[in-house]
Fold this protein.
Amino acid sequence: MSIHSLENQQENHHLNLSAIEKDEILSEIKYFKDRLKTIGYTGDCAYEKRLSGFYLDTIARCKQKLLQF
């Protein structure tokens, strides 16, 4: 196997890893958006309001990660 072939395999592996990471981030965003819908985005009590803030912060961080792709 040539060095060029090995370099191509490594590059493809990184591209696949990035695609997997992107899919995981998108799944995470979907999960937290679904949770937000369940509690009504702002929540009814202090606990739900804290969760809502956490979910929104997490979604924002995930979106920032996606910008790196």
